[in-house]
């Protein structure tokens, strides 16, 4: 009897795990440049980048970041510069150019209100009136812009 109950509990746990809710979050900090670089390397090469590839990528990214900060001293002196320069993570308040430097070109970019609403999922009521553009990235990340600045970041990932 106890064994049968244990088997039933295990089966229910497996079924519940298979039907778990999707990952859905609204956050002020999105994916990091490194996360997307590793993902792209794995998808392209079926492996993590080796030491030389990582070193070359980091050097290129450091150069692009320093070029941007030299050309935009107002961003170089902002409180959020560490998120851009050191953590290398997309964040609310960054410019489109900063996001492009960190994350590269989006998979999808849209200015259509209906598409923005779809990308926002359950956060659409809060985002749709403010966002003028949305950029979608791998692993369900979406960056929302009002004009040239990030105003919201969401992640929606089906399980």
Describe what this molecule looks like in 3D.
- By secondary structure, the protein is of the alpha+beta class.
- It has one domain.
- The protein is built from 8 helices and 7 strands, in the order αββααααβαβααβββ.
- A 5-stranded antiparallel beta sheet has the order 1-7-6-5-4, covered by helices on one side.
- Strand 6 and strand 7 form a beta hairpin.
- Helix 3 packs antiparallel against helix 6.
- The protein is globular, with a radius of gyration of 20 Å.
- The two termini are 34 Å apart.
- The N terminus is likely disordered.
Mean pLDDT: 89
What's the count of strands?
A: 7
- The portion of residues assigned to helices is 40-55%
Taken together, the total number of domains comes to 1
Order of H and E elements: HEEHHHHEHEHHEEE
**What is the CA-atom radius of gyration, in angstroms?**
20 Å
Quaternary: single chain
Q: What is the terminal-to-terminal distance?
A: 34 Å
Based on CA inertia axes, which overall geometry fits? globular
Query: Would you identify the regions where 5 or more consecutive residues have pLDDT less than 50?
Result: 1-16
What is the helix tally?
8
Most strands sheet: 5 strands, antiparallel
Strand order of the largest sheet: 1-7-6-5-4
Q: Strand portion, in percent?
A: 15-25%
Key features?
159 residues; alpha+beta; five-stranded antiparallel sheet; 8 helices; disordered N terminus
